[in-house]
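Consider the following input, taken from an annotated entry for DUF1697 domain-containing protein (Ornithinimicrobium avium).
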Amino acid sequence: MTRYAALLRGIMPSNPSMRNERLREVFEGLGLEQVGSVLASGNIVFTAEEQPASALEDRIQAGLKDGLGIAGGTIVRELAELRALLDSDPFPGLTHGRGTYLTATFLKDGALGEGAEPPRPPEQPDPLARVVGYDAQARAFLAVVDNSVPGRTPDLMTWLERSYGTDITTRTWLTVQRIVKKLEA
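Applying the prediction step yields:
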């Protein structure tokens, strides 16, 4: 058995169909075990037989659509991939805060196309957003965003969607840490 995290795209906790207890019910109905949620923004941890992430993504997405009418995307990562990402310390010396908002944008398996080389960090989309790298194992762009300028919100997510499509989802570094902690509990 393997521990996994499902990172769900487009979850709005104010929508009754998207609350954690409803999301967990779908996962349990799919026969997944040790199902838990992390925060109220579409982060579900679970245990399943080891299998390709893409198979789990398709199965979970079909269950969410059939059970709750949620058509957003599902991205799955194994605990080992997320643990290795944390252990790589991609933000050395930085602490998550308004001026250094640390993010990881995960790409869905296959989003780059079959046999595609892992992407290099793209040209910087905004002076307040700096992509610091790409982790091939976790299939994630890592970025530092400066949210401290009043009236100015860097729009890194829109830029990444234009560059790589909508089969992506972004989490703060703190959320990634919380997900790993829950997976290891």
